[in-house]
Amino acid sequence: MADIAVEASEVPAQLPHARVAVLGAGKMGGILLQAFLKQNLFAPAQIHATVAHPERAVALSAQWGVDVTTDNLAAAKDADLILLGVKPFQVPDLIADIKPALTKEKTLLSFAASVKTRAIEDAAGLEIGVIRAMPNTPSALGAGAAALCRGRFVTPAQMELAARIFETVGRTVIVDEKHMDAVTGLSASGPAYIYIIIEALAEAGVKVGLPRDTATQLAAQTTFGAAKMVLDTGYHPALLKDAVTTPAGCTIDGILELEEGGLRVTLIKAVMRATERAKQLAAG
Ligand SMILES: NC(=O)c1ccc[n+]([C@@H]2O[C@H](COP(=O)([O-])OP(=O)(O)OC[C@H]3O[C@@H](n4cnc5c(N)ncnc54)[C@H](OP(=O)(O)O)[C@@H]3O)[C@@H](O)[C@H]2O)c1
User: Fold this and answer.
1) What is the pTM of this model?
2) Which atom of ligand 1 is closest in space to residue 184's alpha carbon?
3) 173 and 198 co-located in one domain
4) What is the extent of the structural domain holding 236?
């Protein structure tokens, strides 16, 4: 897939003093890094990112205008806030790499699925603040959903900084760590489920005679509008559904098909399966 372009914003620089390392600037790390730059949260000089492949480091450095290398230790030495963005099974090796650079004054912010704050604290071998985040890809457009939880040594100021960072790329909630795998199964994997729903609705539009572009636009805008109704009104989704469902109208016929096809149960099972898988990822 092509890189996801990040939307610009006019928000002024807010964190001029923090030095940030994004270790593992892949899909998610790259989205966050670009969003931070576009939101003017950090200046390019404040950020040092790393990836595994030197040629990718060179390309990304040119693309983003920030220092991108393969040297995790150097990046971590220079940073106050260290984002861990490698695959879950790679986190222990990454912590071992950067251990000499870690001090109690730094903050580790991991967005690797499945990896517990306790495991990161233990690997770091000191009482360092570890925050776990679970963002999702719509962060690229400032429409992300992220959950944060705190490790044992996180100060209120560290948590506030992390929340502020994620609020610039979307909606942020703070949860107990026991909920992080569920968040992974729901909102981190969730965009994929919704894309399938949008794709299916667009196919349906084509089936009933709409041009594909029109059908896709209508399907996506309808999904967006329904989500906005839930978020902005605070009404229960069932109440909003009832408002669309005229007695003996056409919507109730559509709902009948959805219920018969098991959409509701299928979505519940999808989140349950993804949550179960999220529990295993740290083990590789
Ligand atoms: N994708 C999502 O929607 C999403 C959502 C929430 C959380 N996450 C979490 O984000 C993390 C990354 O997922 P992703 O989808 O972004 O995967 P990804 O695109 O494969 O990114 C992983 C990045 O880590 C780099 N890397 C690998 N080993 C490294 C090392 N030793 N030192 C420095 N960098 C290294 C890779 O470098 P190269 O590019 O050179 O290979 C790559 O850029 C995972 O832990 C995942 O659970 C992802």
Assistant:
1) 0.90
2) 6
3) no
4) 190-283
